[in-house]
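G., the chain you wanted modeled:
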Amino acid sequence: MDDPLAPLIRSLHGEGRVRVWSVVITIFGDVVHHRGGSITMGRLQSLIERLGIEPGALRTALSRLARDGWVVRSRNGRNSTYRLSPMGQREFGPAMARVYTPPREAPLEHWILACGTNPPAAEALRVGDGVWLLPGAGGTGEAPDISGHLAVSGALENLPEDFREKMVSPAHRSAIEALAADVACALAMARGNPAPLDALAARVMIIHRWRRIVLKYPDIPAEIRPAGAPDARRLVAEAYHALLPASEKWLDGPQCDHPPLPEADENLFRRFRRGYMAPVI
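Predicted structure as tokens:
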């Protein structure tokens, strides 16, 4: 029988050596944070192995994260438990807002054109040398800090298609296309009543790819998106909520001698939806 996760696993491993420490951080933010914040080594290893990652690579990654102050380990008998350290929580907290912000529903009517050496905000898109276009309110609904920039604001009256094409670099476009292919695979799997561990592994791989995109590239609002370019945030939101019910079942139940994780925080089910509140860490 074919492995339903095979295309996603090939995608994860197909871009060079997997940075296992980064996958572990994704798991802590997406899987562990809303379930009390800690996870046993055995349960974490079961999930990592389903991603096609060797146990030895996980041990090396956890040692590195502990050495760098990202995670802390505690022992209960034979079981080791890991959680993000206070520093790790502080570092990851702002990223969670960018990862799980809902797709924008209302049209953008207010824009800022800023001039300066560096982009004034994560949402800023380069339209020329030292010239940046960004929404009047950032992805969190807050006005961007444009201090230090020459800036004008108002309505976006016209945007030719060649300018739209420049909004997305070839690397950004390639990343979104790979994400769209992964989402299509995950949605097909979700429709087939997947096993809980398979659903959770698929969810982790989708969020890991998405996290890498949102931390490297700005969102592209619909008003300036090139023709035919997918709405990446909406795609991820659809796949996430399709996989969520089955994936959470794996965390609700015991695994070998590892007890269920604590009950999920209600905010989990608001991710990518109106009312989501990024945790204050």
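The chain has two domains: 6-102+169-270, 111-155.

Shout if anything looks off.
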